[in-house]
Amino acid sequence: MPSATALSTQQIPLTCSGHTRPVVQLSFSDIIPGNHYMLISACKDGKPILRDGATGDWLGTFVGHKGAVWSAMLNADTSRAVTASADYTSKVWNAFTGEEIVSLAHNHIVKSADFVDAGNTVVTGGQDKQVRLFDLARPDSPTVVASHESAVRSVRWAKNHSMAVSADDRHVQFIDLRSSAVVRTIDVPDAIANISLTGDGKLLSCAAGKRILAWDVDSLKVVKDITVDYDVSTAAVNPQRTRIVTGGKSDLLIRSYDFATEKQLETHKGHHGPVHDACFSPDGEIYATGSEDGTVRLWQSNPGTAYGLWQLRKI
Q1: Among 80, 45, 75, which residue's Cα sits nearest to residue 63?
Q2: Contact present, 277 and 289 (Cβ < 8 Å)
Q3: Which of 217, 223, 174, 207 is nearest to 278 (CA)?
């Protein structure tokens, strides 16, 4: 079990308000021209928010869903956003104007959606246990590419692999989107709370019970299996594969670990409710956390360095 280590500095996160209910999922974009990147958040208030990734400044809100939004993602050039909602739809948006491009109808709650390739195809999953692939040129004719034994909690596109990764509460599936074939199914003995892919799509992390798991997507082999003494709500790995950040379901703490040694590096408390999701910026310099308290918070990966709007105080 990883050991805890106290820091000599206390980090003051950037707090991003704007949501009125729990923030359930976060995603940074890739780096775009001008060395910028964006952050999008999904919330039970039904109104996903787009922000400047480095500062958390509000850029816009996507208005149109009639239920909680469980997932929100951006395509590679941040020109489009895709959302998944309790209103039985996944919607694709113009990320510059905020206008709805198309609404993808489902027969049950949609829990997760992601873009495939440049953003002309969308993969979704939800309460009906199906993983669907939508060609946006023919949005009324989706293809069911895989099925789960229970509701699909999350689905992500693994870049450069023509593969989607989906998870229900006990299984992770790797799906070849070209053949609609399940390449591998992994049984996870503990209830899955969250899955996350690194920006290059090559490492999958998973929070399940009191375990932090990670698989190499190329080989589909386990590269991390860490047991901790708390219920893990989310686990994310930075692009450099040097750090893991986790959230706790009940203790409200955010913990950071060295990826290689599994030693606990930092512990932070800032949210006033359970942490539902965490993700790293594309350069790995910061990470974002979303909580039951309705806020998004941005944290430095390397406290004490000059980046964005950060301020620290010695203790």
Answers
A1: 45
A2: yes
A3: 207
The closest of 141, 132, 94 to 111, measured between CA atoms, is 132
> What are the structural domain ranges in the chain?
9-314
Q: Class assignment of domain 9-314?
A: mainly beta
User: First CA to last CA across the chain, in angstroms?
Assistant: 28
Residue 314's pLDDT is: 52
Listing DSSP states for 140-194 in one string gives: T--EEEEE-SS---EEEEETTTTEEEEE-SSEEEEEETTTTEEEEEEE-SS-EEE
**Contact by Cβ (8 Å): 304, 312:** yes
CA distance 40 to 83: 10
Kindly report the number of other CB atoms within 10 A of residue 283's CB atom: 18
Q: For the segment 247-280, what is each residue's pLDDT rounded down to a tens digit?
A: 998 888 999 999 999 999 999 888 999 999 999 9
| CB-based contact 245:278 (threshold 8 Å) | yes
